[in-house]
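Protocol step 6 of 9: fold each sequence in the batch and record its structure tokens directly after the sequence line. For illustration, a two-sequence batch is reproduced in full.

Sequence one:
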Amino acid sequence: DPLPAVKAAAVMLLGRLGETGRCYASAVGTMLNDPDIYVRSAACEALGRMGPYGAAFAEEIADCLATDSPMLQQSAQAALDEFSSFSGAAGPAKVYMIEQDAHDHE
């Protein structure tokens, strides 16, 4: 849908669908490049709820910290914090590397 509010709502919903929503992590990840700040923020939040599936986008989410939008920065930081909660001391970058390695060996 071309309306940013509709895209943001759809992305947020996918983040709240648990196991079912995780299947769409790659589609949600593409929303990190959307021109609308609200859509990108929603994508960060949704990916933060998708566990290791969302963590595959940790590097792209970390890039959102460099924006001028406090809202997007907050959403990105919250997602990265979620990733670190299940990755222990390794942090999001390590989770990203583990995910990439797993994909390379499939």
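Sequence two, same batch, same settings:
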Amino acid sequence: GDVVAHSAGVSSEPDFVEYEFNPDREDLILVMASDGLWEFMSNQEVMDIAYNTTEPRFAVDRLISESNERWMREEQVIDDTTVCVAFLGNFQSSSINPPASSAAPEGK
């Protein structure tokens, strides 16, 4: 499988981004996920879902569910999807809408 995947452009080399946490900004939620999540969801959509859940495990469940639904609509298959969510600092979810700047800049 690795040879076939490599010929299609798949790499086993992970992408890394270094980001300095700043508790004075709105650095509230950390989402680490495989490309199965990001294929059909923007950073802002992911943050909106995570922000409006009461616990990280519920955010994971909702994100995977939403991702699976989008995969089925777009491709009629579902890619493997790994998601880890952490609420940072003293973050407490609320029912208010997240600030527009809550998502990290887009990039792949």
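Proceed to step 7 once all outputs are recorded. Observation for sequence two: Confidence is low (pLDDT under 50) at residues 95-102.
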